[in-house]
Design brief:
two-stranded parallel sheet; single chain; mainly alpha; 39% helix; 79 residues
Length: 79
């Protein structure tokens, strides 16, 4: 491989289905907030029914806005 596997993660988009706010924070720290999109498995019971609640209120406003929709708008050219 030309680069470390972790470097390729910054080129992928990853959803928030990690089931825990601390795990989501770690994911963002590893891949960068710009690569994380809000996701849900609703209506299946394996996911979180209110995925926006995993995005902790203590996060910076820009991070919350990116994960809760800004990244998806950018990815799909909806800005």
């Amino acid at each position: 491989m030309a680069r470390k596997p972790s470097e390729y993660l910054r080129e992928m988009y990853i959803d928030t289905i990690v089931y825990d706010s601390d795990a989501l924070r770690h994911l963002i720290d590893v891949v960068g907030v710009s690569q994380v999109l809000l996701g849900t498995d609703y209506p299946f019971d394996m996911g979180h029914y209110a995925p926006h609640e995993l995005v902790a209120p203590a996060w910076r406003t820009a991070e919350r806005a990116a994960v809760l929709g800004g990244n998806a708008r950018r990815l799909f050219h909806l800005l």
